[in-house]
UniProtKB/TrEMBL annotation:
Pfam families: DHH, DHHA1, TrkA_N. GO terms for molecular function: nucleic acid binding. Signal peptide: none annotated. Residues 5-97 form the RCK N-terminal domain. Residues 357-462 form the DHHA1 domain. InterPro entries: DDH_dom, DHH_sf, DHHA1_dom, NAD(P)-bd_dom_sf, Oligoribo/pAp-PDE_c-di-AMP_PDE, RCK_N. It comes from the Archaea. Residues 156-298 form the DDH domain. This is Bifunctional oligoribonuclease/PAP phosphatase NrnA. GO terms for biological process: potassium ion transport.
Length: 500
């Protein structure tokens, strides 16, 4: 519950109080002013108000610490005195201060120094104040701060497996925010960072990440946050029953999301956009490495602002740009490509099966899983191709990556229709992935028999994808269902997560 304290109730302050009390906010409001008539009028309107001099420290000494404080008298000198008193009494509050009618240069400097947000444009005063104190994003930022401050111990900020730039940047940013409120935290991930650009980002920006192993105890941590995914045990290797404190994501959830604090922004193009907004809301200084990572994360997830982009993504980019190390960003975007990745792309092109504007390809055994999305992107660049699926095998798993620019295909829904019964799948309309467990391969020693089974699995995956495309919307149930269910369920339920 957000507690807002208004100190001083001049013309601007009164308008702000009226608008706040009109809104259906889940929070508390208290007004303290020295004008007895104004206080009585507010009480008549059922607005909690007290009479007292808000410049007097003794008047506010016993007031609960507010989450948001508005300085709203009419005169600049009075507001300056209120601001000085309030900042001393409530050092952690987010303060929005009205400069008053005739501020001096010294007043302006002090307001800029002590207030988190300063309002002085008469034509937008009320809207500006409400934006800083009562908008949904401001509410959410306050709640996040409260949750972080309530954590006793060390926080693990966990990305999805084999994290992409958006997940990595979001984790690093949340660690920065935690540090700002005095909370120790680590950015953590399971799996590998094997994509060339991803490795370049981590190495060139010197990002501090902890690689967790599946059998590693989690006793170092007292709380857990998930970024760029929303459920423990789904596309990460945390226990499914793990209690999660914080979830921040932009993907549509595949099921119920349970955490103390949940922020799902399905209309944002990247989780990095959400974290950028938090840092800005908290008035924190952007570290160049974090800002560069966040901007790169947004650019990758929105395909340079061409895919599933929202106005918030452009706003975040404009906030980040002054703090970005552009020379490092250029080096991240132009890494060397190793031979294994080029080989995977070549096999995808050579093995592709084409039906109208859809291309599907198996690349066989994988040495670099992150080469799959690059291969899917390369197939999508071919003339006449609008949708691609590329898949390969590693150990006893099949990994799938899909891309589309067709307006009538939702890849996330298509892959769930095709593979959710035999694995784990999901993603966006134009970018999705799946993981399927092929446990039967572990029982076969003869290489010819392995090749034969792999050939059947390739046929199953290809046909289930085409069936799901042909029968959209709805589940894909076709001639290969029984074969595929037998192949993929010989060794129990799958536990993978979506991966693009």
């Amino acid at each position: 519950m957000v507690f807002r304290l208004v100190l001083g109730c001049g013309t601007v302050g009164r308008h702000v109080v009226e608008r706040l009390s009109e809104r259906d906010n889940d929070g508390r409001l208290l007004v303290i002013a020295d004008d007895e008539a104004a206080v009585e009028a507010l009480r008549d309107e059922s607005v909690p108000a007290r009479q007292g001099d808000p410049t007097d420290a003794s008047v506010i000494r016993n007031v609960d610490a507010p989450d948001v404080l508005f300085v709203g008298a009419d005169r600049s000198d009075v507001n300056r005195a209120i601001l000085e008193t309030a900042r001393a009494q409530f050092p952690r509050a987010s303060i929005v201060a009205y400069r008053g009618g005739n501020p001096s240069e010294n007043d302006r400097s002090l307001f800029d120094e002590l207030a988190d947000h300063v309002i002085d444009a008469a034509d937008s005063i009320v809207d500006g104040v409400l934006d800083q104190t009562a908008s949904p994003s401001a509410e959410t930022a306050i709640e996040l701060r409260q949750h972080l401050e309530s954590i006793d111990g060390r926080l693990a900020v966990v990305t999805h497996d084999n994290p992409d730039p958006d997940a990595i940047a979001s984790a690093v940013a949340l660690v920065d925010i935690a540090a700002a409120v005095g909370l120790e935290a680590d950015a953590c991930y399971f799996g590998d960072i094997s994509h060339q650009e991803n490795r370049a980002m981590v190495n060139l920006l010197d990002l501090d990440l902890r690689n967790l192993s599946p059998d590693e105890p989690l006793t170092d941590y007292d709380a857990f946050a998930l970024v760029d995914h929303s459920r423990p045990g789904v596309n990460d290797q945390l226990p499914e029953e793990l209690y999660v404190d914080i979830v921040i994501d932009h993907h549509p959830p595949r099921g119920p999301v349970s955490a103390s604090f949940v922020d799902l922004r399905e209309h944002a193009g990247a989780t990095s956009t959400v974290l950028t907004e938090y840092i800005d809301r908290f008035s924190l200084t952007f570290h160049p490495a974090t800002a560069t990572a966040l901007l790169y994360g947004i650019r990758i997830d929105t395909n340079d602002f061409m895919r599933e982009v929202a106005p918030a993504d452009f706003r975040a980019a404009s906030i980040l740009w002054p703090h970005v190390d552009t020379s490092l960003l250029e080096r991240i975007e132009q890494p060397t490509v190793d031979g294994e990745t080029l080989g995977t792309i070549a096999r995808a092109i050579q093995n592709r099966i084409r039906r109208d504007s859809i291309a599907v390809a198996s690349v066989g055994r994988l040495t670099d899983r992150d080469a799959l999305p690059q291969a899917a992107d390369q197939l999508l660049a071919m003339e006449g191709v609008e949708t691609t699926l590329v898949f390969g095998f590693e150990d006893e798993m099949a990994f799938l990556s899909a891309r589309s620019r067709a307006n009538d295909i939702d890849l996330g829904a298509t892959l769930r229709d095709a593979f959710d019964r035999i694995g784990s799948a999901g993603g966006h309309a134009d970018m999705a992935g799946a993981q399927l467990e092929i446990g039967i391969l572990g029982d076969v020693d003869d290489s010819d028999e392995v090749d034969s089974i792999v050939s059947v699995v390739e046929e199953v995956i290809t046909n289930r994808f085409f069936e799901a495309i042909d029968t959209r919307p709805g589940s894909s149930v076709g001639t290969y269902t029984r074969t595929s269910e037998w192949l993929f369920t010989q060794h129990g339920e799958t536990d993978g997560g979506e991966s693009a």
